[in-house]
UniProtKB/TrEMBL annotation:
GO terms for molecular function: DNA binding; DNA-binding transcription factor activity. It comes from Salinicoccus sediminis. This is HTH gntR-type domain-containing protein. PANTHER family: TRANSCRIPTIONAL REGULATOR, GNTR FAMILY. The keyword Transcription regulation applies. Keywords: DNA-binding, Transcription, Transcription regulation. Residues 4-72 form the HTH gntR-type domain.
């Protein structure tokens, strides 16, 4: 089993807290002091974890207001990752192939040749398709 760092453990605990307290995109996260006490870690450790989450685009900070849960689906991090992950024409073609497989699956599932992935009710499938599209566009930019 892979060992996690203290930072990874705290990030996971913050994720679990967000889930448990049903914090939604745009809503404020608990204060650093609350997180420190709840997670039984130092305030510096909480700050380090929050900085990591901010760099990943999972949260954002408004000075004087607090820390909020971000809408990661629209974060530019995906384009940046895409530029590093998809470096060859072959990888680009593989991304396109996977996108087409998803599109064909949705059409077959519904028996509708014109149905879009975005009309399907599978939210995870939609997110994967959007992510692949972002990676594909990052390669072409």
């Amino acid at each position: 089993m892979e060992e996690r760092t203290g930072l990874e453990h705290i990030v996971e605990q913050i994720h679990n807290l967000v889930e448990a307290e049903n914090i939604q995109v745009g809503e404020k996260l608990p204060s650093e002091r609350y997180l420190k006490d709840k997670l039984n870690v130092s305030r510096q450790s909480v700050r380090e974890a929050l900085r990591a989450l901010e760099l990943l685009g999972i949260i954002y900070v408004r000075r004087g207001e607090g820390t909020f849960l971000a809408d990661i689906d629209n974060h530019q991090l995906f384009q940046l990752i895409g530029k590093y992950l998809i470096r060859t024409k072959r990888q680009q073609d593989e991304i396109i192939e996977i996108k087409e497989m998803i599109e064909n699956h949705v059409r077959a599932k519904h028996g509708d040749r014109d149905m879009s992935v975005y009309d399907d009710d599978n939210q995870i499938l939609k997110k994967i398709h959007v992510l692949l599209d972002k990676y594909s566009r990052a390669f072409n930019s």
